[in-house]
Amino acid sequence: MSGSDGIYSPAFMMRAGIVGLPNVGKSTLFNALTRTRKAEAANYPFCTIEPNVGVVTVPDARLETLAKIVKTSKIVPTAIEFVDIAGLVRGASKGEGLGNKFLQHIREVDAIVEVVRCFEDKDVVHVAGAIDPVSDMQTIQTELALADLESVSRIREKLEKQARGGEKEAQASLAVSDKLIPHLDSGRRALTAPLSPEEQLLARRFFLLTSRPILFAANVSESALASAQTLPAVAAVAEHARTHLGTEAVAVSAQIESELADLSPEEAREYLDHLGVAESGVGMLIRAAYHLLGLRTFFTASEKEARAWTIHAGDTAPAAAGVIHSDFEKGFIKAETVSYQDLVAAGSMPAARERGQVRQEGRDYVVEDGDVILFKFNV
C-alpha cells in the first residue's frame, strides 16, 4: 500500500517552543525530548541564550502493528520540531531579562509548551524565591499579553491612518484591533478573543504571542512521577490550564527523561517499570504537542516500509498526497483508503477488501487520523 517510490519531501515541519521561567527544567526536558545535550542546563538564569532546535519523532504504536501486517522491518515515524527558548522573567515585556529577544523567539514558533516547576530542590534556585506553579503560569501569561497589547496598540496607530484614507481592509483590521485591545488588557489571550472566522484571519496578520496554542508540562521530581496526578501542585496546574486557558497539562519528570535518554529501549522500559510508571511522560507530551499544533497522521504501508505522514486536521486527500510528493497532488485521481482499525481487524489488505472496508475516495475527502492510503495519480 505504498503511496510511491518518490523522494520524501515534507510539506512542512511544525515548531513547538519550550518556554518557562528560569530554572524550571526547560533545557533538561529539551535534551530529553531530542536525545541530545545541545541545551546547556545549569543552576542559574539565562543559561539558554540562543534557542536550541531539535527534530523529535512522534511516538505512535500503530506503526509497529502496521509493519507486522505488511511484513516490513522498516518503520518511519512522523516528526515535529522543538525549540528551547531562554527563560522569561517578570517584566520581559518591558525589556527585563532577555526581554524582546525572548519574545521574538516565541513569535517564530507555531505553538508553546510551557514548563512549570512542580518540584522542590533547595540546590536549584527559583527565580521568584518560592515554588508557586500557578503564579509562574500567570507571570508568563501576563508578560505575553502585555507584549501583545503594546504590539496591537502600535499596529492600531498605523491602521487608523490607513482607514482614514478609505482602505477597506485597514478599516476591518482596525475593528479587530478594537476588540483585541480590551481583551488583552484584561490579561486574556488573543486565541480566546470573540472573533468571527473572517476577523480571526485578519488577527493572524498581527502575529501575536498569545494567539499561539499552549500546552503545559508540569515538571515533577523523580520520586513523584508515578503519583504525579495526586500532587496538589500538578492538580493546580491542570485546573488553571483548563479553566483559564482552555488547554491541558501533562506531568513529566525532566530528570527521569534525561536519564532515559542514555538508556536502550529495553533498559528504559525496565527503569520505568521499577518506578511504577506505565509510559514516559515525554511520549505523552510529544503526542499532546502534535495534536495541539492541529496535526494529524495518515499512513502508507508496504513490504518496503510502514510510514507515518503529517497533515493538518481538515486536509483533503489531494493535500495529503502532496505531502508525499507534489506530483501526487497535481495528478491526483483517487485515494484507496482503509481505516487503521478496520485494517487491523481484517488482518491484511486483501481481507479488508473482501470485507468491503477499502474505500475509493475522491478530491473532496477529508483525511481522518489513522487512515491507511494508497494514492492513485497520473502525471
Please describe the structure with a list of short key phrases separated by commas or semicolons.
single chain, 379 residues, alpha/beta, three-stranded mixed beta sheet, 12 strands, 41% helix, flat, disordered N terminus
Describe, in plain words, how this protein is organized in 3D.
By secondary structure, this protein is of the alpha/beta class. It is 41% helix and 18% strand. It has helices at 26-34, 62-70, 99-107, 133-164, 168-185, 197-204, 232-245, 254-260, 265-275, 281-292, 317-324, 326-330, 340-346, 349-354; strands at residues 15-19, 52-57, 75-76, 79-84, 111-117, 214-219, 249-252, 295-301, 306-312, 332-339, 359-361, 371-377. The longest helix has 32 residues, at 133-164.
Short description:
The chain has 379 residues and is of the alpha/beta class. The protein has helices at residues 26-34, 62-70, 99-107, 133-164, 168-185, 197-204, 232-245, 254-260, 265-275, 281-292, 317-324, 326-330, 340-346, 349-354, and strands spanning 15-19, 52-57, 75-76, 79-84, 111-117, 214-219, 249-252, 295-301, 306-312, 332-339, 359-361, 371-377.
